[in-house]
């Protein structure tokens, strides 16, 4: 046989490009390499060359590869690549946790503490590559066979490459194409190298077979079609055989023809050796001697002897304590040749052996998966067990195992509850993979099953519906479950939550009270807390601060005395609680409860509390002026929401971050983000939809698109609720934009209503917003004296609510008012305060905008000192028009005001100038006296 360790033939161009990439990576950059080509064409070989070259330049080289028959080993490619490299200990905690999780999965630990959820694993691996010293080459081979989790992780790393010098090289056949990975490869030419390997040329064969005559080389080239693996196999073939193959069986004959050829090599071996070879093919790579012996049904000594001989023959290569075939194609050929029946029994033997010896659970599940028969209860249990440990970690693998488990589980009455558990687990796995609708369908059967699984299923179905924004469906599901269940408290609480999201306050209140009642009877304190926190939210939504306070107190007391494990199943309750507490200015408490909720929920996008907690996090961070943190939190959460594929949540989160983006980067950036967001459609849940639309309107307003802002605000539906929903803020923005639009009547009316509502609700932040709006409107119409107290009230309320950005904006407004009044000292004072707030929050755009305002104000101030005091610019305008003989109606038309407004202005002008009629006013004007206030 030809020696495959011989030097590399041809491929000069490819090597040149790879060397360049290695150079770039050595300089601290990220590069991706994709190697494709037909079986045996030399992908692995080229990857090895790349690894060797990188190694020579001092890189840490990590190689992992997928195998054909083991697709249910989660992260197998990364286990192989990264676990040998666990020294030295990565300093980074996230990296360490990820590595430990991989080690635990590779050992197939049954119940491991190390197991973490997917997102954290991805991030940890990314950190591992980022924090490792020096440059790294991560070589991933045979990705066409890779398990789903390995593929997903590769996609993640390619889409968000860790910083620092890293080379990720992937190799795969054209089919089956790892589509996600291919799509994730960087498109920029300088970032990625794409190598599609072609057959070797005839001239290359001179190097391959230096001793062969030209005629023989030509025959070899024709027979092999330039495929190096084929060339290797044919190296010793006689000329008549070669001539017979010249029809070009390969690649036309495909891998099968190649496999037949490879088998010819083994066919000369005695039967017992082939039996061991087949056992090895079943056992898979890294097979241990005892397992191979057991599968082959020989003693260990005989097996060892046979393996030695296979090694000597060159078909098998020993690595550490394990054995593997020389080439995956050879293994595939042997595996297939063993025949379906023998293979199935061989897997069955492997499973029995591993089961009895408590072998690694994933390995056990793999053999069970390949041998389980219909009605095999034990097999179903094994698969279920293995899947349960993988749900958060590798849902794709878990769903594969569960589907087999459900298929083989006997259809017996007494196994119903086990079947329901499996279905529930399957629904979770499927949802994690982003198939929300399919997941809900799977739940249908569970919902009709017995308690308590059906209650759990109802809760989970509700989570799915929330993520899909389909609250009506959630409500329907829950009310149906309610009618059948004996465990009503949890369902009632969930119904209250759903109705809060639907902004149906009456129903939410009713369910909240019922939940409180039931939970009290059950003496379930955490559920009681959940009910109180929902009631608090509801009271706040209905602008009843007193009730909100009472319920929030009760909830907080219970939550603070509960343990983490008690709280965990209801971690979602902490979101409404934190939100209400923030509204009540109980800031530290709000922060503590939010942090606890986030900690308990972790990175599980499918956790019940996840959406609400994450949205509240973004809203509160923005309010506190931690703008970068708000944007980052929204981004991270949106990334997580992409796992279960929840458009609803992604859009809401990004919308929640719009104000922070605005204050940081200005309206252009925010507008671009808003446009991108609208392209996905608005959220369907009433509350999230209102939040999103309000923020879109805010961005439009600041981008100077007042008409678009007004259109957004007037297009319904908006709920009548005020306090926690968008209500008061919407009214405020509406009033200000109406004023900008010269619709004084609406502006005054809206700001007045808003103020009354806010006073009724009694919550500081909203009072701030309502006063601010009132001041803005009055300023627009030149009512400086009246505007001033509102603006300072706004600033004070915002300061109390610890909302620095809002306070800064109110102070900026105050400064404007002072400048109009000619009070330069007060103006400067407020400007300085506003600036301090913006700087505190690094609100770059607001700072720039403030600097511009400052210049404008200085100019106004100079002009102002030369102008008559007393009349606002609007009043001055009206006075002049009235003096020139226009009627109120004519003035109104000209200034786009209502006649009533003009009348009101004139009345004030008369008082200020101490004139009693238009005639007198005209005379004062004609006399040429300035419109100065009479002494
Ligand atoms: N350019 C080359 N020069 C010398 N030997 C080569 C060359 N390319 C490949 N080989 C040898 O040919 C055999 C098949 O190559 P390799 O395993 O790299 O193919 P592959 O494309 O990875 O196939 P598969 O799709 O089955 O993984 C190996 O023994 C390898 O060493
Ligand atoms: Mg290969």
Plain-language structure description:
The chain has 935 residues and is mainly alpha-helical. Among the domains are: 12-198, Rossmann fold (3-Layer(aba) Sandwich); 222-346, Arc Repressor Mutant, subunit A, CATH 1.10.10; 726-858, Serine Threonine Protein Phosphatase 5, Tetratricopeptide repeat; 873-926, Arc Repressor Mutant, subunit A. Helix content is 68%, strand content 4%. It has 50 helices and seven strands. 53% of the residues are buried. Residues 864-929 form the HTH luxR-type domain. Keywords: ATP-binding, Nucleotide-binding.
State the major sheet. 5 strands, parallel
**Which strand-content bin applies to the residues?**
under 5%
Query: Which distinct ligands sit in these coordinates?
Result: adenosine-5'-triphosphate, magnesium ion
Please state the second-level CATH architecture of the domain at 12-198: 3-Layer(aba) Sandwich
Number of beta strands? 7
Q: Number of helical segments?
A: 50
> Could you please say which CATH topology of the domain at 12-198 applies here?
Rossmann fold
Organism: Nonomuraea pusilla
Domain HTH luxR-type: 864-929
GO molecular function, one term: DNA binding
Pfam family, one: AAA_16
Concise summary:
The chain is mainly alpha-helical and 935 residues long.
Key terms:
Regulatory protein, luxR family, disordered C terminus, nucleotide-binding, Serine Threonine Protein Phosphatase 5, Tetratricopeptide repeat, about 950 residues, mainly alpha, binds magnesium ion, Arc Repressor Mutant, subunit A, two-stranded antiparallel sheet, Rossmann fold, five-stranded parallel beta sheet, 7 strands, adenylate cyclase activity, binds adenosine-5'-triphosphate
């Amino acid at each position: 046989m030809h020696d495959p360790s011989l030097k590399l033939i041809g491929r000069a161009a490819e090597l040149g490009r790879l060397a360049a990439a290695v150079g770039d990576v050595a300089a601290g950059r990220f590069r991706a390499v994709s190697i494709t080509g037909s079986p045996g064409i030399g992908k692995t070989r080229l990857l090895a060359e790349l690894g060797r070259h990188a190694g020579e330049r001092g890189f840490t080289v990590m190689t992992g590869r997928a195998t054909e028959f083991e697709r249910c080993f989660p992260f197998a490619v990364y286990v192989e690549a990264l676990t040998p490299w666990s020294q030295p200990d990565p300093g980074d905690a996230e990296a360490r946790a990820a590595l430990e999780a991989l080690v635990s999965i590779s050992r197939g630990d049954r119940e491991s503490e190390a197991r973490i959820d997917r997102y954290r694993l991805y991030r940890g691996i990314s950190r591992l590559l980022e924090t490792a010293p020096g440059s790294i080459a991560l070589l991933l081979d045979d990705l066409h066979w890779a398990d789903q989790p390995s593929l997903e992780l590769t996609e993640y790393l390619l889409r968000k490459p860790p910083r620092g010098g890293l080379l990720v090289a992937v190799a795969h056949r054209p089919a089956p194409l790892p589509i996600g990975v291919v799509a994730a490869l960087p498109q920029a030419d300088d970032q990625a190298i794409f190598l599609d390997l072609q057959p070797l040329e005839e001239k290359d064969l001179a190097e391959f077979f230096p001793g062969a005559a030209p005629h023989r080389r030509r025959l070899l080239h024709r027979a092999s079609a330039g495929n190096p693996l084929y060339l290797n196999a044919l190296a010793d073939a006689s000329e008549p055989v070669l001539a017979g193959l010249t029809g070009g069986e390969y690649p036309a004959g495909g891998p099968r023809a190649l496999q037949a050829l490879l088998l010819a090599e083994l066919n000369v071996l005695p039967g017992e050796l082939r039996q061991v070879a087949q056992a090895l093919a079943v056992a898979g790579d890294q097979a241990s001697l005892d397992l191979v012996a057991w599968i082959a049904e020989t003693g260990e000594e005989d097996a060892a002897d046979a393996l030695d001989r296979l090694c000597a023959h060159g078909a098998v290569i020993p690595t550490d304590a394990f054995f593997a075939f020389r080439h995956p194609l050879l293994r595939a050929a042997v595996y297939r040749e063993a025949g379906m029946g023998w293979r199935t029994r061989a897997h069955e033997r492997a499973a029995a052996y591993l089961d009895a010896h408590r072998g690694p659970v994933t390995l056990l599940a793999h053999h069970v998966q390949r041998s389980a028969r219909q009605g095999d209860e034990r097999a179903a249990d094994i698969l279920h067990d293995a899947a349960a440990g993988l749900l958060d970690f590798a849902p794709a693998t878990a769903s594969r195992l569960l589907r087999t488990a459900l298929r083989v589980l006997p259809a017996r009455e007494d196994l119903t509850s086990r079947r329901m558990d499996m279905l529930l687990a399957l629904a979770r796995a499927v949802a994690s993979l982003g198939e929300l609708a399919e997941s809900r369908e799977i739940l249908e059967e569970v919902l009709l099953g017995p308690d308590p699984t059906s209650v759990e299923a109802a809760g989970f179905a509700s989570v799915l519906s929330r993520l899909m924004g389909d609250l009506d469906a959630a409500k329907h599901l829950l009310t149906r479950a309610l009618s059948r269940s004996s465990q009503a408290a949890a369902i009632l609480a969930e119904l209250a939550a759903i109705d809060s999201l639907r902004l149906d306050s009456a129903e939410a209140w009713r369910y909240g009270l019922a939940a409180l009642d039931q939970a009290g009877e059950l003496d379930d304190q955490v559920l009681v807390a959940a009910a109180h926190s929902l009631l608090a939210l509801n009271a706040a939504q209905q602008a009843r601060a007193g009730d909100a306070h009472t319920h929030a107190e009760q909830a907080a007391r219970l939550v603070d005395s509960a343990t983490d494990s008690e709280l965990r199943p209801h971690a979602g309750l902490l979101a409404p609680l934190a939100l209400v507490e923030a509204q009540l200015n109980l800031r530290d408490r709000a922060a503590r409860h939010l942090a606890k909720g986030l900690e308990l929920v972790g990175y599980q996008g499918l956790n019940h509390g996840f959406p609400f907690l994450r949205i509240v996090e973004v809203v509160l961070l923005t309010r506190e002026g931690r703008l970068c943190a708000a944007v980052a939190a929204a981004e991270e959460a949106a990334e997580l929401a992409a796992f279960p594929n929840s458009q609803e949540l992604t859009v809401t989160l990004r919308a929640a971050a719009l104000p922070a983006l605005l204050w940081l980067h200005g309206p252009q950036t925010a507008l671009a983000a808003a446009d991108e967001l609208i392209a996905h459609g608005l959220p369907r849940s009433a509350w999230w939809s209102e939040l999103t639309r309000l923020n879109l309107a805010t961005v439009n307003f600041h981008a100077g698109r007042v008409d678009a802002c007004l259109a957004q605000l007037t297009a319904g539906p908006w709920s009548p609720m005020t306090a926690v929903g968008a209500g008061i803020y919407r009214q405020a923005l509406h009033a200000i934009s109406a004023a900008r639009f010269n619709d004084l009547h609406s502006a005054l009316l809206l700001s007045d209503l808003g103020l009354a509502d806010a006073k009724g609700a009694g919550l500081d932040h909203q009072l701030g917003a309502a006063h601010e709006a009132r001041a803005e409107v009055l300023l627009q119409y030149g009512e400086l004296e009246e505007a001033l107290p509102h603006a300072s009230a706004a600033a004070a309320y915002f300061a109390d609510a610890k909302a620095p950005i809002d306070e800064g904006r109110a102070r900026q407004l105050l400064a404007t008012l002072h400048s109009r009044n000619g009070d330069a000292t007060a103006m400067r004072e407020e400007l300085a305060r506003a600036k301090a707030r913006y700087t505190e929050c690094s609100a770059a755009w607001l700072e720039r905008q403030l600097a511009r305002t400052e210049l404008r104000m200085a100019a106004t101030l100079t002009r102002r000192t030369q102008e008559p005091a007393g009349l606002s610019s609007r009043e001055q305008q009206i006075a002049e028009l009235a003096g020139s003989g226009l009627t109120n109606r004519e003035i109104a038309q000209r200034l786009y005001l209502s006649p009533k407004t003009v009348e009101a202005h004139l009345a004030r002008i008369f008082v200020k100038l101490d004139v009693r009629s238009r005639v007198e006013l005209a005379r004062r004007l004609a006399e040429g006296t300035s419109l100065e206030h009479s002494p």
